[in-house]
Amino acid sequence: MNDVSMLQKAEAADTAAAKEMDKWNIVKSVIYTSGERDPTKPIPPQDAKGKLHLMGHDPRLSKMPEKPTLFDFFKHRFGPSKHMLQSAALAKRNGLPDKLVLACLVHDLGNNAFIRADHGYWSAQLVEPYVDEETAFAIRYHQVLRFYPDEEFGYTYPDSYKRLFGEDFKPAPYVEREYQYARKHKWYGSARLITVNDLYAFDPTLDDDLEEFTDVVGRSFKQPEEGLGFDHSPAAHMWRTINWPTRYL
Ligand SMILES: [Fe+2]
Ligand SMILES: [Fe+2]
After folding, report:
1. Which helix (H) or strand (E) holds 52?
2. Could you give the CA distance from residue 20 to residue 2 in angstroms, rounded to a whole number?
3. Distance 91 CA to ligand 2 centre (A)
4. pTM metric for this prediction
5. What is the DSSP letter of 209?
6. How many whole angstroms separate alpha carbon 82 and alpha carbon 96?
């Protein structure tokens, strides 16, 4: 193909993409904009004349397979996942069992791909139907445990939190309550081990990739046959929302 026809092809693709976008009036969910605008006020009018409201795939995103797997979500919808991959790699190197390596691999799905606030709870809820109960517990509670040191495990309060939240930041009372609950739980150690392996770039020269965890995921994550989002689990709708985040209803 010569340069001119390549250029023409690219232009045609751009025009088709713009035309496809023109068909849709894409409305953001209230939670995406709450704070930027007052959620109790009506949504500013949009020029939706002649346009349809999106009820499926968002044309701006890459299309996912019909029966998406956890790895498909990593490739198409999750944010850069170096931090989770590194945590899982560290957990593996430290000899943690499969269920905790998997926990590390998905521990920050909330802030990485869904909703930041209370990320441990969202992360756990997303995977709960497909993993061991202890895995879900560890993921859920790593969030609150991050705020409390535990010398026995060699876990100290992160310096990054002092920078992020200020020197005199105090966790909310519910965080303290949840911490006390988790502290006494039989799986406290498992949740604590996530915080111990939860390091940003513990070795920046290592470049771990997803395929390293194929076996761990195969053994410890019950991938639904219908694909994540299309099974009947209590979290299926959350996976569908990540797949098609801008559907109107
Ligand atoms: Fe986290
Ligand atoms: Fe983390």
Report:
1. strand 52-53
2. 27
3. 12
4. 0.93
5. -
6. 19
Q: In angstroms, rounded to a whole number, what is the distance separating the alpha carbons of residues 222 and 131?
A: 6
Rounded to the nearest whole angstrom, what is the distance from the C-alpha of residue 154 to the centroid of ligand 1? 18
How far is ligand 2, taken at its centre, from the CA of residue 104, in Å?
8
What distance in Å separates the CA atoms of residue 3 and residue 126, rounded to the nearest whole number? Answer: 47
What is the 105 CA–ligand 2 centroid distance (Å)?
A: 9
**57-99 pLDDT, tens per residue?**
999 999 999 999 999 999 999 999 999 999 999 999 999 999 9
Helix (H) or strand (E) holding 120, with range, is helix 119-127
* Chain segment 93-125, per-residue pLDDT in tens: 999 999 999 999 999 999 999 999 999 999 999
Q: How many Å apart are CA 106 and CA 87, to the nearest integer?
A: 9
3-class DSSP state of 24: strand
User: How crowded is residue 211: how many other Cβ atoms within 10 Å of its Cβ?
Assistant: 8
Ligand 2 centroid–CA 62 distance in Å is: 26
Answer whether 111's CB lies under 8 Å from 95's CB: no
CB distance 169 to 225 below 8 Å: no
Structure-token match 């979500």, residue found: 73
